[in-house]
Design a protein that fits this description.
This protein is mostly beta strands and 181 residues long. It contains two helices and 13 strands, in the order H-H-E-E-E-E-E-E-E-E-E-E-E-E-E. Strand 8 and strand 9 form a beta hairpin.
Length: 181
C-alpha cells in the first residue's frame, strides 16, 4: 500500500511539474506580432528584415533620411558651399535617391540605408555634361525634440575624368559634409 501511495504521489508530482513548466506563455503569441515580416525571437523581441527597424519592425529605416536637407560643406579642392538637396524613396525598400547632390541640379545619386547609416556605393554622376565618380558613407544623428529631424554627417568624394579628387572627409582630406533638417 505504501509503494502504491508513493507511486501515486510521485506521478502526481511529475504531472504537476510538467504542467507548471508548460504553462509559461509563449512570448511570441502573447505580444503584438512583428510587422513587415519580422521574425519573433524566443525572448519576444523581433528580428527585422532589411529596410525596417524598431521594436516591432514598424519603422521604415529610410524614412529618417527622406526630405529636404540644408547642406554645409567644404571639400578638399572646392570652396565652402551651402545648398539644398532632396532625398526621396528609391526603388528598393533600403534605397534612397539624393537629388542636387554636390550642388548640381542634375546630380542624382543612389544610396543604400541600413538603420542609421547611409552608403553611397561607387557610381557615376553627371555634372555639367561630364561624368564623375562618387562614393561615400554617412550616419544620422537624431534631434532629441523633433524625432525625424536631425543631422546627417556624410563623408564622400567626387573624382573627375582626370582623376582629380574633391574629398569631403572620405579619405581624411577636407571636412565631412553636414546635412541639417
Amino acid at each position: 500500500m505504501k509503494s502504491i501511495l508513493k507511486s501515486t504521489l510521485f506521478a502526481a508530482a511529475v504531472f504537476a511539474g510538467a504542467g507548471l513548466t508548460s504553462c509559461q506563455p509563449d512570448k511570441c503569441e502573447t505580444m503584438l506580432a512583428c510587422a513587415n515580416n519580422g521574425v519573433c525571437n524566443s525572448d519576444g523581441s523581433c528580428t527585422c528584415p532589411l529596410g525596417y527597424e524598431g521594436p516591432r519592425c514598424e519603422t521604415t529605416s529610410r524614412d529618417k533620411f527622406k526630405g529636404s536637407w540644408n547642406v554645409i560643406e567644404d571639400g578638399s579642392i572646392s570652396n565652402a558651399m551651402n545648398y539644398t538637396v532632396s532625398v526621396q524613396d528609391g526603388v528598393e525598400i533600403d534605397q534612397v535617391i539624393i537629388r542636387n547632390f554636390n550642388n548640381f541640379s542634375n546630380g542624382t545619386v543612389y544610396a543604400k540605408v541600413l538603420l542609421d547609416t547611409v552608403v553611397i556605393p561607387n557610381q557615376q554622376m553627371e555634372q555639367d555634361g561630364e561624368l564623375k565618380t562618387v562614393e561615400g558613407k554617412g550616419y544620422f544623428v537624431f534631434e532629441e525634440i523633433y524625432g525625424l529631424h536631425g543631422k546627417l554627417v556624410l563623408k564622400y568624394r567626387v573624382i573627375d575624368k582626370d582623376g582629380i579628387v574633391n574629398d569631403y572627409g572620405y579619405r581624411g582630406a577636407g571636412n565631412p559634409s553636414e546635412w541639417l533638417k
